[in-house]
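Encode chain A's predicted structure.
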Amino acid sequence: MAMASIIGHCPNRPSVLLASLLQNKSCNSRAVGESRIASIHQFSGEGGGELRRGQRVRRARRRGFGLSVTRSMAGSSEQEVRGGESVGRPEMLTTASYSPPSWASKLHPLPSQFCTLGQFPTPIHRWNLPGLPKDTEVWIKRDDLTGMQLSGNKVRKLEFLIADAKAQGADCVITIGGIQSNHCRATAVAAKYFNLDCYLILRTSRTVVEQDPGLEGNLLVERMVGAHVSLVSKEEYVQLGSVGLGKLLTEKLKAEGRKPYVIPVGGSNSLGTWYALHISFYNLYLVA
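Encoded structure for chain A:
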C-alpha cells in the first residue's frame, strides 16, 4: 500500500512528505506570531427570556425528582447539577474530581476528573419566531456563551479528554479533522491552556495540500496558539483512515521521546461522550 503524503506546512517551506515526517526530518508548523486570544464577552439574548428558576424547579418536581435536586436548582445560577447534586463550578482552567450520576455508575469508562474549559451551565433562552404554530415554543441552548475563544459546545467533550490526557502523563495531543474543523481549533486552544503541545492532521483537497493553507479561519487561531499542522488529502484520508493516520504520527512522536495522547475525530469516543450524559441530566430532565 502506498504511503500517504501528509503535508506538514512551515512558514519557510511549503510542504514535506510523510516519509520525511516519519524519518524525523519534518518541520513543525510553529506559531506565526503567537498571541493570547481575547476572551469572548458573554451577553444575554435579546427578544427572548431565560427559563425562570421557579419554572425549572416546578418541572423537575413534576418529573419526580427529589428535593435534593429541586433545592439545588433553586440555588445559585453559578452552580451546576452533577449526578443529582449541586456542586460549585470550580475555577476556570483547573482540574477537578468528577462524580458521575448514580444511574451511570456501571458504565465504562468512568471519568474521575474533568478540566474546567467552559462557563457552565449555559442559559436556555426562548426564541420568539414569527409564524410559529399555536402552542409551539422554541428554546435555544446558548452554548455560544461557553466563553473559550468561540469554541462553543466543543469544549464539553474536551473537558473530559484533556483531563484524561493530563492524568496519563501526556505532553502533547493529536487530533484529526477537516481543514476548518471547529473541534481541532477548540483542541488547540484547550491544549495550550493546559501546557500540552497540539498536533493537528487536517483533511483537505489535494490542491490545498500542495500549498501552504494560509492563515484563514480556524487555521489562524490554531497557528496563533502554536499548533503543529499537517495536511492530508481526502483520497489519502480514505486510504489510511483517521485511526491509521493517528497511529503513524503517534509512532513518530514516541520515537522522539514524546508522550502523545490521541483524541479521535470530533472527540467522539466513550470518554468524550460523557458530556452528553452529563448535560442530558441537567437539560432534558430538569429544564426541558
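The CA atoms of residues 98 and 112 lie 5 Å apart.
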